[in-house]
Amino acid sequence: MADVRTNAQPDAETVVEAPLPPTHIAVRREDYTPPDWLVPETRLDFDLDPDRTRVRATLAVERNGDHSRALRLDGDGLTPLSVRIDGEDARWRMEGPALILDIASDRATVETEVEIRPAANTKLMGLYASGGMLCTQCEAEGFRRITFFPDRPDVLSKYSVRMEGDRVRFPVLLSNGNPVASGEAANGRHWAEWEDPFPKPSYLFALVAGDLKPNRDSFTTMSGRQVDLAIWVRGSDLPKTAHAMASLKQAMAWDEKVYGREYDLDLFNIVAVSDFNMGAMENKGLNIFNSAYVLADQETATDGDFDNIARVVAHEYFHNWSGDRVTCRDWFQLSLKEGFTVFRDQSFSADIGSAPVKRIEDVRVLRAAQFPEDAGPLAHAVRPDSYIEIANFYTATVYNKGAELIRMFATVLGPEKFRAGTDLYFERHDGEAATCDDFVKALEDASGADLSAFKIWYSQAGTPRVKARIEHDPEAKTATLHLDQHIDPTPGQERKQPMPIPLKTALVGEASGHEICPERLIVLDQAEQQVAFDNVVEAPLLSINRDFSAPITVEANRKPHELERLAQTDTDPFARFEAIQELMMRSLVAGANGQDPDTESVIRAVAATLNSNSLDPAFKAEAILLPGESLIADRMTVVDPDAIHASRDALRRALGSDLRDSLLSAHRSDGAAGHDLSPAAKGVRRLRTVALGLLAAGNEREGASLAKAQFDRADNMTDRQGALGILVSLDAPERQAALDAFYQRFHDDPLVLDKWFALQAAAQRKDTVDAVRQLASHADFTMGNPNRLRALAGTFGVNHWAFHSADGRGYAFLAEMILAADKLNPQVAARLVPPLGRWRRYEAGRSELMRQTLERIVAARDLSKDVFEQVSKSLA
Ligand SMILES: [Zn+2]
């Protein structure tokens, strides 16, 4: 676990940067202007060395339009060593971190030379060192930390890259596109040249140099071209790359079949990196991945890890069209590539696995990550209007709500017209930097539909709340659905307009349990609306927002017995899941508010689900899993974490003891060999652990012994991690024994060790805050590695009960983590802020402590603009 950056000092570059206040200026979407200068061609020459890397850039620049403005090249912590224009030493000046050149002619060749220090780059943006290799991360604004350049996504350039470095340390030299030449150099060095024939923005530039070994394969495209594939990792990790490679080939075939998109280069490279701010990056022809999304085998990775690898590999691959071939005009359009690509990867995962379960998982993520964003001080539109630091806008709103927006377009248009629209979009904007409006226009032009009303989903923040009430007239055999919508104000948007909300809706007969009015698509686009149903031959139950057709919350006045009935009969799996979850939620909220929780109806619904012969185990597991504590908090007027925890605990105990026999047989069901990754086998394993969790709630001693048995017997990480995840919350001797055994066995594997940290940070215990504090000084904890920091501090921040410990120690711990991490890596530090942000919703004592904690952070010296933006907006 030697991490070279464990004790690293703050990046020397931060010292020479302009003082902070001037850089805290917001960038606004309405201020967009086209680039003054274009750069059709870029040549980069790297003299690689972890301590001092020389970068020479040769840019062919071209005046864009009729103006006399200077050429402005963005930089971040760079000092020019030489600047030449058309071969002559040039006069230059700096404006803050940018290099300004006055150029008289309309075309010129600009050469610059800088020196950068990859080993001291703890921000992991630009060129940095990780585990002995050198690699890059340029989205959104990392390229300006490598060389001076108009670092904006609408400046597309053809790149040729030459790298030279030590042959032993860096035997493999990779960049975008195709390798064109290589050779030996003096002093044990060697070089390689790469050319990318496709013009691209600077954020898609990539370079990798290291001692890596490839898993090679190939893929034949639909037009019969052979593409060489390689996944590059440390030699010892090669056996763990099979699943990523299989996923890549599956994704390539899927994109041809579903979107008609073929890969365009002869080579596709993936590189796994241990230190990475994000999940992965879609650099043209050279995807760079967080190793967590590449490496897996049954011993060390859970079913969830395997699914995530398939999802992320597909996501980055799909970007080759939705992102690389058609990119974004400016960063406000980020959802153009991210929302669309998330929608594409969601559809892919649904196609290769269980579609209903995948939909439930996606909605869980949206509710856990995006709904709180929409309801808090950091709420922003899918296409934001302004930002201080763009890195803060890689959010669930831009990604996941953005994907829901695309899904709504697909729902309203239907599959054929949607496909015609995406075909037109790719054809019309190939090689361009486009906008969200361009995307909608292409859908409209190809389909003939008017989608203008839907564009409000790009600009209006907040989650719409829809109230629904069905009124039945048995005489006339009709029913009327009364709908209204409301959106709470969000920062900067006091008044909200009604939004078009596509609601897949059906009526189910209460007595017969049959669908008496088949599913139809209702678009609610007024503040209030009524919809009539005919031939309603029996008392109807309302099945609404089926398949979660719109990213909203529904408040339907359905009685518990109606929800119970829907939970057993609804033909839409998602609506069925919703019915049982709503039943649980009402009980949990009532319990937290000191009212009668009506546990009986929940117990009956869970029993019926568990004992059903028609439902598959994966669905059962999702349906009987109780809503999380922060989700319950979203339903409370004043949040009291102790009351929520007590209410949830009580319901889990009641389920565990009343349904012991059913849970035990679900826990013991087999048919899932460790190596079997079929959806059916994954479902059996998932239900095994979910059932075990409830059993342990009902009887701690029996639960601990069953969990330890599952832990000891496990031949795969899913069962092992599942069992340990239950044990960590118990007060049983098995707990420490299992934690120690896990550590002993896996402490040499960083990705598994992350799980060990995360599981303890997620423990539902009073002393979790003490545990995380101790873990922060554990020899294996390192703040410089984003995965490790997220495993401990990120996981703890969303452990609702432990984090919101009434004495404020949880807040103090997170603040310490944020401030310490900010010195090294502001981007990752800023992502830890949101759990503190919703202080206004908590009971007075905690609310005040949270506010004070935010005040203390914002008062810190030399705070990055990343953290400054998140904290100051949270306080505003
Ligand atoms: Zn993406």
Quickly describe the structure.
This protein has 876 residues and is of the alpha+beta class. It is built from 30 helices and 31 strands. The chain has an 8-stranded mixed beta sheet with strand order 6-5-9-3-2-12-15-14, with no helix packed on it. Strands 17-18-19-21-20 form a 5-stranded mixed beta sheet, with helices on one face. A 4-stranded antiparallel beta sheet has the order 10-11-16-13, with no helix packed on it.
**Hetero ligands:** zinc ion
- Helix content class: 40-55%
Strand order of the largest sheet: 6-5-9-3-2-12-15-14
Strand tally: 31
Query: Rounded to an integer, what's the Rg over CA atoms?
Result: 28 Å
What would you call the quaternary organization?
single chain
Shape: globular
Distance between the termini: 41 Å
Parts with pLDDT < 50 across at least 5 consecutive residues: 1-22
Number of DSSP helical runs: 30
Structural class: alpha+beta
Largest sheet: 8 strands, mixed
